[in-house]
Amino acid sequence: MFQPDGLQAFVLLGLNFVVTPAILLVILVWAMVIVVRSPKGQVRTSAAAGLGAGIVLFVIYVALGIDALDVPPITGLGIDPGVSLQLVGLVVGTLYGVLLILLVRFLSGTRLTGALVLFLALSSLAALYSYFFGSSQSYRTLVQFLSLGTAFGIFLHILLFPAAVRRKPNASP
After folding, report:
1. CA-to-CA distance for 139 and 79, rounded, in angstroms?
2. Which helix (DSSP H) or strand (DSSP E) does residue 149 occupy?
3. Stronger pLDDT, 128 or 80, i.e. the higher one
4. Does 90 fall in a domain?
5. Residue 134 belongs to some domain of the structure
6. Looking at residues 40-57, what average pLDDT do you find?
7. Domain assignment present for 31
8. 163: three-class secondary structure by DSSP
9. Which domain holds residue 144?
10. How deeply is 158 buried, as exposed, middle or buried, from its count of CB atoms within 10 A (0-12, 13-18, 19+)?
């Protein structure tokens, strides 16, 4: 096995823990700069949704690989890293997110706005309550991945159809 010493160790340390992370962070900052410098309107909305979707996918990536990390277990949090409903939750959540933004798009500004707000408030608060105070590990896992899938579905819809979330010119603020 290769054992670097002296200058080799210093160069490898700099490459592994300074240069490579710096390059990756610069790419992330570049993505943020693209969002900020995008022209206002649909292009900026799409760019911001792309950044949001990328962050959500990163969270999904971390959540899916959490059991592969070599860290001591965190006890008392009630999060089951060995998730079994990941894919189902992500797919259903993504579809729900797309459907949710379509409902918001078509129902907001109508007489059904109150019912829409009631549904959003009730479903989010009930899921949040069950997530923190429920006793089932698998339910927490399902809610976690449904939430991530929902966020991804919303961002995906905005990314593909940025005009769908723009306020109508004659709409009140």
Report:
1. 10
2. helix 137-160
3. 128
4. yes
5. yes
6. 87
7. no
8. helix
9. 38-165
10. buried
Phi then psi for residue 32, to 5 deg, are: -65, -40
CA angle 150, 104, 96 (to 5 degrees): 25
Report how far residue 58's alpha carbon sits from residue 18's, in angstroms, rounded to the nearest whole number.
21
User: Residue by residue, what is the 3-state secondary structure of 98-133?
Assistant: HHHHHHHHHHCCCCCHHHHHHHHHHHHHHHHHHHHH
Count of domains in the chain?
1
Does 90 score more than 90 pLDDT? no
Contact 33/125 with Cβ under 8 angstroms? Answer: no
pTM over 0.85? The answer is no
The pair of three-digit structure tokens given for residue 65, joined into one six-digit string? 């690989």
Under 8 Å between Cβ of 163 and 101: no
Band (26; pLDDT cuts 50, 70, 90):
confident
Token match 């993505």: residue? 31
